[in-house]
Amino acid sequence: MPDAVHVPPPAAALLDRFERVRARTLALAEPLSAEDMAVQSMPDASPVKWHLAHTTWFFETFLLLPHAGAAPVDPAYGYLFNSYYEAAGPRHARPKRGLLTRPSLADVLDYRSRVDGAMRRWLAGTQQAPEVLALLELGLNHEEQHQELILTDLKHLLSENPLKPAYAAPAAAEGKAPALSWHPHPGGLAEIGHAGPGFAFDNEGPRHRVWLEPFELASRPVTAGEYLEFVLDGGYRDPRHWLSDGWAAVQAQGWAAPAYWREEGGRWLVFTLSGERPLAPDAPACHLSHYEADAYARWAGCRLPTEAEWETVAAPLWRQVGQALHPPPAAGFPAGVWEWTASAYLPYPRFRPAEGAVGEYNGKFMSGQMVLRGASCATPAGHSRPTYRNFFPPGARWQVSGLRLARDA
Amino acid sequence: MPDAVHVPPPAAALLDRFERVRARTLALAEPLSAEDMAVQSMPDASPVKWHLAHTTWFFETFLLLPHAGAAPVDPAYGYLFNSYYEAAGPRHARPKRGLLTRPSLADVLDYRSRVDGAMRRWLAGTQQAPEVLALLELGLNHEEQHQELILTDLKHLLSENPLKPAYAAPAAAEGKAPALSWHPHPGGLAEIGHAGPGFAFDNEGPRHRVWLEPFELASRPVTAGEYLEFVLDGGYRDPRHWLSDGWAAVQAQGWAAPAYWREEGGRWLVFTLSGERPLAPDAPACHLSHYEADAYARWAGCRLPTEAEWETVAAPLWRQVGQALHPPPAAGFPAGVWEWTASAYLPYPRFRPAEGAVGEYNGKFMSGQMVLRGASCATPAGHSRPTYRNFFPPGARWQVSGLRLARDA
Amino acid sequence: MPDAVHVPPPAAALLDRFERVRARTLALAEPLSAEDMAVQSMPDASPVKWHLAHTTWFFETFLLLPHAGAAPVDPAYGYLFNSYYEAAGPRHARPKRGLLTRPSLADVLDYRSRVDGAMRRWLAGTQQAPEVLALLELGLNHEEQHQELILTDLKHLLSENPLKPAYAAPAAAEGKAPALSWHPHPGGLAEIGHAGPGFAFDNEGPRHRVWLEPFELASRPVTAGEYLEFVLDGGYRDPRHWLSDGWAAVQAQGWAAPAYWREEGGRWLVFTLSGERPLAPDAPACHLSHYEADAYARWAGCRLPTEAEWETVAAPLWRQVGQALHPPPAAGFPAGVWEWTASAYLPYPRFRPAEGAVGEYNGKFMSGQMVLRGASCATPAGHSRPTYRNFFPPGARWQVSGLRLARDA
Amino acid sequence: MPDAVHVPPPAAALLDRFERVRARTLALAEPLSAEDMAVQSMPDASPVKWHLAHTTWFFETFLLLPHAGAAPVDPAYGYLFNSYYEAAGPRHARPKRGLLTRPSLADVLDYRSRVDGAMRRWLAGTQQAPEVLALLELGLNHEEQHQELILTDLKHLLSENPLKPAYAAPAAAEGKAPALSWHPHPGGLAEIGHAGPGFAFDNEGPRHRVWLEPFELASRPVTAGEYLEFVLDGGYRDPRHWLSDGWAAVQAQGWAAPAYWREEGGRWLVFTLSGERPLAPDAPACHLSHYEADAYARWAGCRLPTEAEWETVAAPLWRQVGQALHPPPAAGFPAGVWEWTASAYLPYPRFRPAEGAVGEYNGKFMSGQMVLRGASCATPAGHSRPTYRNFFPPGARWQVSGLRLARDA
Predict the structure, then answer these.
(1) Residue C117: CB partners within 8 Å, gap ≥ 6?
(2) Is the pLDDT reported for residue A350 higher than 80?
(3) Contact (CB<8Å) A104/B33
(4) Chains with ≥3 Cβ pairs under 8 A against D?
């Protein structure tokens, strides 16, 4: 949710952005069959068709119905495509999203089209209050989040298929990873969190002070080649590197390398959205759980940065080297990873969720999860920010998640 | 597997039947979308697309590859579409059949088409040994079994959808259930089991003698209206009616009525392949587990018949009243149910599985299951026989399973 | 439950037997500490203290309270020590029997003593109706069943202890196993089941006719040495030997040999009630599940006998060679095993459970279990009979269960 | 682990304290039978006997064996009584601690006695290096932690017994809870964490600065009577009060009130170590999960304090009112609760675990848990400190855990 101080862009600008965001979602789905989009590969992931419908439901439920006087396209969709908003009524169980062969993909595309039309008419026709435009802006950012999930959920689905199918052509080969250097910070009072003027989610604020001890932050994420050294050094067989919960996960899940890695005759293969390919040692290590990121850091004699450290030192670094926080979406995820931090996902001081159902957007998940910062190659361009707080449970591996090392100065 | 004595029909007749069976499978799939056919709603059920492919794999694996010198259409299909034949090599895990969005439905239809063409060419071209034709006949009966599973698995999938979609128009209303009468049998030595000349599965033989005590068998299955009396009498709340395992299932699963039944404001609704419809009291009760069939019988002061009793008295009854053992497939299952017996699914005396991989067809499942006799409205015409032994675990409810009462004379 | 025709022994004889049975239970518990008797090692097993109390509860509940006008020793015990009698009211959950550190062992021993005293006074004082004496006889047989469970449940508990403690001194070494021979039977009509005059459980009757095909039965159970050949031949790695459910159990449980067997440096060790000891090749193989017994028989080119075959041929064999059906209890189980049959545990024709709560004794368990015949070294002397039907689920391994081979003639 | 700067007390003082700590553990066990001490009621809890042995193992393993040249009392104990120290070798699985009926209670008491003797001789005889005395001090604090666990684990065990047995006489009735007032804090830089001179665990340091926003802290914990208002207001039925994980726990576990609370005919009963007793409205609410504490705070329009807020304002409060942080142990827990904070259990800046196996004491658990501050009536006198960090998973309810409200100023 935007801060109270944030003034959303004018309706015309938002409509323009609406068109682009909505079109990009369809473009992501374009290479897929109706079958690919119907299936759910695990409870954490959702079918692509469900993402297409849910992002549409968001605009219909929070804008068209209460503010544009619209009638629902189909009253059943309120039940089927509500993700987790208790205040928006009962809903279809998450692990059963993959059973919804009806409405068909065509029906869902029609739903999108009809909601898009209604949105256009409504935005063209009346003067909207700023708080309503703020909800529209939230809906666009919400859809961008689901664009990333479309890619990660799809990748998990395809990885379960023994045919190892490809979704897209491989990205052009990347160059060598730059040598690692360390960026020192002297410690002291810092300020973190969003303070405008642009959009931010409610969990990014309020901006506030934190005290930092002197530390150093690595100039780039850990590469797959560096992580492989940990694997080959027996990192997954030595409990001393691991948090207790992490070691339990290693044993219970039989982890021996990051998700999607596989060793065959001494050669390491990685499943990507371009199919299974040889491990690219200069790409950032990814599909790591927090446990693995933490264990690697301990093995390397370092630690994960806190989110305050990351925001203070890493975010400016990204800009310094000319990188935005949003590398272009690339199917195979060859570059750009979310970076696990040492920080639990908890409210900032004086955090207040938004009023109404969208108040459930972020706050109620502030338990049992760890913060990731940055952005990945699957993140839509322009979606992330230096203050952006991504979060997942420490055992999650299907996101494009890696790490950047920190150490005490 | 056919008995040794059974002489399979000539190749021309089998080819003709091949065309009809294969076409009927496609006809069953015709009203469905690719999405409907891709999804798996529970580990016990399979996607329709998988059924389409697996039945094709059977002909390719057991006939075309070893006997017609064919090359596999796609070597990966041997892994993907093997159901449970250990001797045919490793295979895709059953609960993950629903993750196979590739090969696409179009690919699978092409697979069917190419295998059908090869089968036609092979059957036209050479003289086949009787044991090879016997395998073809087995494959046709195998595909008919999957035709029934296509309907029951699909029904389960659609029932999980809050939209309660219909697959087919409802069947015409049936008349009243005939009054129940009892058919006595004096007991003594009887013979059961298949002895030719037609096709039968290996588990139906050898024909052998059994000793029967005097008993009586009901003239028709229990109707939904009769079963409703048990429900309304608190049958699902009184442990005295139930086997211990059945009572545990009632409590663990929260059963309060047969599968697909639902009470709303005093009215009983039943999910069918024509959508949710009012309970039809004169139709046979179905979607019962063995536990429920057994509990009903005990509540009614009766018992389930053994399969020997059923074969001796019920099978001829069906003929007597002009019913075949194979009512025409009807979407909503308004008539015709498999009838649970009191017999565990165990080998007949001197039972021998077939040689080779098809020996895994029946024998290895002779543990932990109960026999059902008869046929249901979902069974292909001509598929069942008086000696036919269907079998499912006692807790299974997604088949068209009901009961017929028996009592000691 | 006794047959209707069975006349129970006079009260004086039953009192004498009561004293002996009750004393033997205490003798079994004598080497154990209160701790040993309090703990439950798995849901299927019960603490020894619970067995001591439950067998006492049986006499109190079914005799003293309804027939002797007694007041309960402690009203709470009716809840705590009811095993599964729904008609006797609610009860403590089975998997939580091991949480009952109170009542203490001393309290339970006092309970036993007070019920014993009341039983003596009651039996001495009045004339009891035959149906009441029949309940007493049932209670004694019931306690004998629990004597066997005390040993098998205790063995499981001690086996979970890394100290591998011993309960009793090892039995004297046995001689060599006799050479295997085959006892033929020509087939035809046979009669099985109990017909008096002595006591039998309700599930052993009524006596009835069965038709047998010609077959042969082995002269003795399979020995541990013979079973070891199956293990060493890779029997646990080849799915062709196994029922489908059995193979699933092998993989899910990681079975590689019978329960309590362990290989160390090429030497096979077996946990016994005398601690861990070298495998005794001439002792009967035991602690086999039905799946393992069945797989061994298939590997050996044979099959398991039906219970009718066993009762017709094996029971007389036992007598012929001077063996009773009840070898003396021996701690380490060096001789005498229950023998899995190919028969599911189902009611005999015209079976009727007893009236009242004791009708739950056997009938409601006639689902999902297989019959074992014979007796084991843990069975109290005189407890078993040629018609005795023991039963356990096919995956159970903590009983003293082995097999005898059969084959078609 | 003590800070580097902390100088442990002299050996003579530690020996004196050793005698008192060890004696108090035995005193806690004194009212219990061997049966009570052998049983494990859930995987999170351990048998009292295991606590008696494990605390002894700590001294033997980390002091007597490496530093006093002692031989182990029993080599098997190293396997049986290691809790979680990977560096100390393999160990008995935690959920199976309750299966260890051997060694007997008498054996374990003998183990304690022999280790105590060796400790006395060793401490009397030689000059110990400060780092070794630091380990001794750690062992004493470790044993005090297990003293609290003995009470909480025992309470859980007894609560599972339908007899609702009492461990101790109820404490004398407490007075009225004081009226709630609010203690303001202006915010700014604060220092938290241990800095000597006394003992502290490694996770309490290093002392470091944190920035606080202005806030207020309640003068006392929430009482049972106050919490009951939340229950009666439907707090457990309204998802808006709950974190998402908390609401999932409410539904999955069927929570409707704190652990050990039960409503009967409108009257609220609470299971205590003095048996089941009427709810005492003026006692602090306890046996709350973090989720419940958080939900209550939200319902009350407040929030939980961070651990820095708590340490800055609440710890001095305790002193101010003359309370130590360690109310005397009282069986029924009538007063004194651990207070859940809003802080995840994570390392302080520059935290370093101790070298060697005791480095596993705290650090590896810094994942998935929340910090509790204060002390409870079950905490040994003198054990806690203002900097003390207790921690449990957010769903844990068997500890004496309550809450104190905070709010933004």
Answers:
(1) none
(2) yes
(3) yes
(4) A, C
